[in-house]
Amino acid sequence: MKKLSVISAVLLLLILAQVGQAADLQAGWYANVYAVEVYTYGYQGMPQLTTGAYFYSTPPGQYGPFKVWGGNPQVDFERDVSVPSSALNLGADQSLVLPLTIPLSNGTRIAYLSFAWQTDYDGSQMYIDLWRTRASGATEQVWAQRQSGLQFNTTHVAFDATLDGPYYFKVNVVPEPPTVMPILLGIAGLALARRRR
Fold this sequence. Notes:
Number of domains: 2
Number of helices: 2
Distance between the termini: 16 Å
Structural class: alpha+beta
């Protein structure tokens, strides 16, 4: 019976650890992605710009803690995502998905994707990444920007890939476990060790 109560206490602590995870996003943080271009293979197998990719599925507006807009003037080949006011105690479920529309048929062989980006956030609380969907339905992370502070670049990814399914950017909310949890888990571990003696 005592063993069951110790196991129950440890399980309760682990559940509390999951519930207690939260992220704090600060007003002014942002991620910007634009000019997503798709290169396929052209004459003599050389990469050539074939089309752009567009953010039709996420029109400008408020999405949870994030404000989304498409540049000035509004365009569908750019998405700016900002945190207009500080938002505290957020879970990963507040992350924002930005699907891309690529006007090519599934099965098209692409040389690579190219896009420009700029970010300014704390990478331990928020970051942006790019995912692709495989023919099996599984998803695969293609790129991530986890560095804090002002960062910008042009990136080339998904070299020699097949367009199997959707690509999408995701602005991730990264919850951190509460600082008290390592202490509570240590106490639970000591209690278990003592019971075994």
